[in-house]
Amino acid sequence: MIIPLDLLLQHSLFYGVVLSVAMTTLILVTLYGWPMIWVGDAPPEVRAAAPPMSDADRRAKRVATVVMLAILSAVLVAALRGLWELAMGRPSFADVALSTFIIFMTFNLVDLLIIDWLILVTLRPGFAMIPGTEGMAAYGDYSFHFHAFLKGTAGVAAFSLIVAAIVVLLL
């Protein structure tokens, strides 16, 4: 059964907010404790000026990656289970793809607007700066983060189609 659009939007936005709160918390906690683990996501000038990552930072990055994947997986599985209930059976390809897209795009927007533009570019808290790069002009580059958002949008679109194909074909 096709899920009514209003129910699909409500469901997807709920899980998008859950994902956004969990991921924003993880990102801010890790920025506070281990800002170096995010050096790969910094503007090129910051990456070039940053010191090498320590062994402790590499371990922290591995742990953060596992936690991030667990959050992403848990939210996706819970959302897909909810879609099954809303559809009273197997949801359609379109419902799964659209819901997955909305959930992950909600976080993509939160990441751009709150984490990147508000916190990192506008407020620039000292705890979020890569050691040795504090005060660099590159931290004020809104367009760098917007381009990352666009890449994230393409990635979310592709991911949503893959998830929908797996759900419809295999489950």
The biggest beta sheet reads: none
What integer is the average pLDDT?
97
- Residues in helices, as a percent range: over 70%
Shape: elongated
Uncertain segments: none
The number of helical segments is 5
Instruction: Estimate what percentage of residues fall within beta strands.
Output: under 5%
Total number of strands? 0
Question: What structural class do the secondary elements suggest?
Answer: mainly alpha
Radius of gyration: 18 Å
Pattern of helices and strands = HHHHH
Kindly, what is the distance between the CA atoms of the first and last residues, rounded to a whole number of angstroms?
A: 15 Å
Protein architecture, described:
This protein is elongated. The model has no long low-confidence stretch (mean pLDDT 97). It has five helices and no strands.
Feature tags:
171 residues; mainly alpha; elongated
Describe the structure in brief.
The protein is built from five helices and no strands.
How are the SSEs ordered, and which strands pair?
Layout: H1 5-33, H2 44-49, H3 55-87, H4 93-123, H5 142-170
